[in-house]
């Protein structure tokens, strides 16, 4: 079982499901050749895919195009089903930064065939996390910088203000369709600049005022 780690709290919360949003930055939708979506595109990852900052991402042997996606992560701290804006805002108890590691070659193959993307998004170490910062310690301003570099070269550098759907809109949308529970984490989509990484590469990712992830590919 994987547990959420918190900054300034010893509470032990098991990780529930990871709910991820696809194409939530217009410039990233464009670089993947997709349209800007009318509603959030949702997919899941299992909790067993989670590793923490300073652990290594293990490159799956069945892919030749492992890619990084840096994202704002929302921590759901109370159950919510079909909530309004206020309930959605209340259900978000904190924030983190995450890497949604993706097997892009498999994803394009699955998309072309109209098959589910599951195996392009789910594999051991496909979700990299760090400590959750609780809202009592930091209120998100909404224009924090989000960036990622590989071997010291900046690849992704944007602001979370460029998100198409806001955290509250995302939680409201998902909770109208499935119950979100305490311990669930929401990956809110990645800005442009996604790219391939290979064994030996070192990734460093930062979300301003929230945290930092370092990992390497093995
Ligand atoms: Zn993503």
User: Could you describe the largest sheet, including whether it forms a barrel?
Assistant: 8 strands, mixed
Number of helical segments?
A: 5
**Outline type:** globular
Question: Which CATH-level-2 architecture?
Answer: Alpha-Beta Complex
Order of helices and strands: EEEHEEEEEHEEHHEEEEHEEEE
CATH-derived topology: Fumarylacetoacetate hydrolase, domain 2
Counting DSSP E segments of at least 2 residues, the number of strands comes to 18
Derived from helix and strand composition plus strand pairing, the structural class reads alpha+beta
Report low-confidence residues grouped into runs of 5 or more: none
Assembly state (oligomeric): single chain
Give the SSE layout.
Layout: E1 3-6, E2 9-14, E3 18-22, H1 26-31, E4 41-45, E5 50-52, E6 56-57, E7 66-68, E8 70-76, H2 85-91, E9 92-100, E10 102-103, H3 104-113, H4 118-121, E11 127-129, E12 133-134, E13 145-150, E14 153-159, H5 167-175, E15 185-187, E16 195-196, E17 202-207, E18 211-217
Parallel strand pairs: 3-15, 5-11, 6-18
Antiparallel strand pairs: 1-2, 3-4, 7-10, 7-16, 8-9, 8-15, 9-11, 9-12, 13-14, 13-17, 17-18
Helix pairs in contact: 2-5
This protein binds zinc ion.
């Amino acid at each position: 079982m994987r547990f959420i780690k918190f900054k300034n709290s010893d509470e032990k919360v098991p990780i529930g499901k990871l709910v991820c949003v696809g194409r939530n930055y217009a410039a990233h939708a464009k670089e993947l050749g997709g349209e800007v979506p009318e509603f959030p595109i949702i997919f899941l990852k299992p909790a067993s895919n989670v590793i923490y900052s300073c652990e290594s991402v293990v490159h799956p042997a069945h892919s030749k195009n492992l890619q990084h996606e840096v994202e704002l992560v929302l921590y759901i701290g109370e159950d919510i089903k079909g909530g309004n804006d206020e309930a959605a805002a209340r259900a978000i108890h904190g924030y983190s930064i995450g890497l949604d590691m993706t097997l892009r070659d498999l994803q394009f193959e699955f998309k072309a065939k109209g098959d589910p993307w599951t195996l392009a998004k789910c594999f051991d170490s496909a979700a990299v996390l760090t400590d959750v910062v609780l809202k009592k310690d930091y209120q998100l301003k909404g224009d924090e910088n989000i960036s990622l570099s590989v071997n010291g070269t900046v690849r992704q550098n944007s602001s979370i203000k460029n998100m198409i759907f806001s955290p509250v809109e995302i939680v409201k949308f998902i909770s109208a369709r499935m119950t979100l529970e305490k311990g669930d984490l929401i990956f809110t989509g990645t800005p442009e600049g996604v790219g391939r990484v290979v064994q030996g590469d070192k990734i460093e990712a930062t979300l301003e005022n929230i945290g930092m992830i370092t990992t390497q590919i093995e």
